[in-house]
Design brief:
Helices cover 39% and strands 22% of the residues. The chain is α+β, with helices and mostly antiparallel strands. The structure holds histidyl-adenosine monophosphate (HAM).
Length: 436
């Protein structure tokens, strides 16, 4: 679990704001659900045999309730959707969320025990074009963060229709047929999960399972006609949107609730190793009904902010220096006369107040530092201007205002501070080191 200090938090805010803007461009509104839910919600929806439920949940008992700190956002959002009978209020709903999730995984770069997800869930639209649209949304977020070398991986798990149309049951049977004679070669986890959920073997990280899974049957070979039509609808809509993808029949994902479309978006541009999956999602047409609502199709995705940040920095760091901020640094130099010190500090503070009253972001430095040190600090903070208040200024009622980006300074009457500063921060940056 990580502390995010202010400098880094600025990049987080940038990522969140790119996401919020794109989500609202597609008509999504924010939902905020509790961080703690009943344990049963997760074990039922994510699957008893998933790694998340079996090994990673932070669960506890309080007031006779079995509770879990959420490992993901989909189940809680679906619970809220059903609990508030949203299905009765509008034909389809588009929700997004931003927040911390908790999984007791083995930590690595891009894999943490508390991590943040940005996610979207769309309820009430069964059509394949909505699958393509949500993938397009993801790509737009990633491109908005200048993340490069993206690959969309796509697969379909099929659905659980009656009889022969039950792709999932037929795929399960095909996997059992394939793995049962090879049982002894599987990892211990996979041997244990074989009868309950053979799909999990395809998602295993164990080298023995990976070797065996290579030749396992593909879900695409057993799709029912309806499921195949849906999948073809998704790929055709992606083609029409100009989104490239690879069909990856081995993609199963680690959670049990998926039906039909599954997707992940990976990047090769950052040094993320096995954690290069920035985004994962898919359709889960059976969850809402399973939670007590009417049969309602749903699709969604989530992205890990920490991974987005690593990938974003990898692609932007070399290209731009930090921009100058339309902000001001008020540098109050220590008066020669020690008795005047308090007055000087108060004057500096009242200058800062005038600037802030006018909506100008402002730092005020009353530490008695040397001018050079204060200018260095103002530069490090990328503040556009520095207002200098020294003995000379105090005597004459004038202020020195330095444009740090253009490396010019002017002397102005203190009464004109706000007006002249507003002008200055609007002046284009010409000096070297300027950012676009
Ligand atoms: P997920 O694949 O488990 O899916 O997680 C989605 C994304 O969250 C991953 O691709 C990754 O970027 C990030 N992530 C997951 N675990 C960690 C971790 N331990 N540390 C850092 N980042 C992590 C879900 O959670 C589904 N709820 C997505 C979804 C929404 N499906 C339908 N709707």
């Amino acid at each position: 679990m990580n502390d995010i200090l202010p400098e880094e938090a600025r990049s987080w805010q940038h990522i969140e704001s790119v996401f919020r803007n794109v989500a609202s461009l597609y008509g999504y509104g924010e939902v905020r659900t509790p961080v703690i839910e009943d344990t049963a919600l997760f074990s039922k929806e994510l699957g008893e045999t998933s790694d998340v439920v079996e090994k990673e949940m932070y669960s506890f008992r309080r007031h006779d309730n079995e509770l879990t700190v959420r490992p993901e956002g989909t189940a809680g959002a679906a619970r809220a959707y059903v609990e508030h009978a949203v299905w009765g209020k509008e034909p389809s709903s588009r929700w997004y969320y931003v927040g911390p999730m908790f999984r007791g995984e083995r930590p690595a770069k891009g894999r943490y025990r508390q991590f943040y997800q940005l996610g979207c869930e769309l309820y009430g639209d069964a059509g394949p074009t909505s699958d393509a649209e949500i993938i397009e949304l993801c790509v737009r977020v990633l491109q908005g963060l200048a993340i490069k070398e993206l690959t969309v991986h796509l697969n379909s798990l099929g659905s659980s229709g009656p009889g022969e149309t039950n792709t999932r049951a037929r795929y399960r049977a095909a996997l059992l047929d394939y793995f049962t004679p090879r049982r002894a070669e599987l990892s211990d986890d996979s041997q244990r999960r074989l009868e309950k959920n053979p799909l999990r073997i395809l998602d295993s990280k164990d080298a023995r399972d990976i070797a065996l899974a290579k030749d396992a049957p593909s879900t695409l070979d057993v799709l029912s006609d309806d499921d195949r039509l849906h999948f073809e609808g998704v790929t055709a809509a992606l083609d029409a949107l100009g989104i490239t993808y690879v069909v990856d029949p081995r993609l199963v994902r680690g959670l049990d609730y998926y039906t039909r479309t599954l997707f992940e978006i990976k990047t090769a541009s950052a040094d993320l190793g096995a954690q290069n999956t920035l985004c994962g999602g898919g359709r889960y047409d059976e969850m809402i009904e399973g939670l007590g609502g009417p049969k309602t199709p749903a699709i969604g995705f989530a992205m890990g902010i920490e991974r987005l940040l690593i990938a974003h920095l990898a692609s932007t760091q070399k290209e731009t220096s930090a921009p100058w901020l339309p902000a001001v640094y008020v540098a109050s130099l220590a008066p020669d006369d020690a008795g005047a010190k308090k007055d000087a500090t108060r004057t500096a503070l009242s200058l800062a107040k005038q600037l802030r009253d006018a909506g100008i972001r402002c730092d005020v430095d009353t530490r008695d530092s040397k001018l050079k040190a204060m200018l260095r600090r103002a530069d490090a903070l990328r503040t556009r201007a520095c207002v200098i208040l020294g003995d000379e200024e105090r005597r004459t009622g004038m202020l020195t205002v330095k444009d740090l980006a253009n490396e010019v300074q002017v002397s102005i009457p203190s009464a004109e501070l706000v007006e002249r500063t507003l002008e200055l921060i609007k002046t284009p940056v010409h000096a070297k080191g300027a950012a676009s």
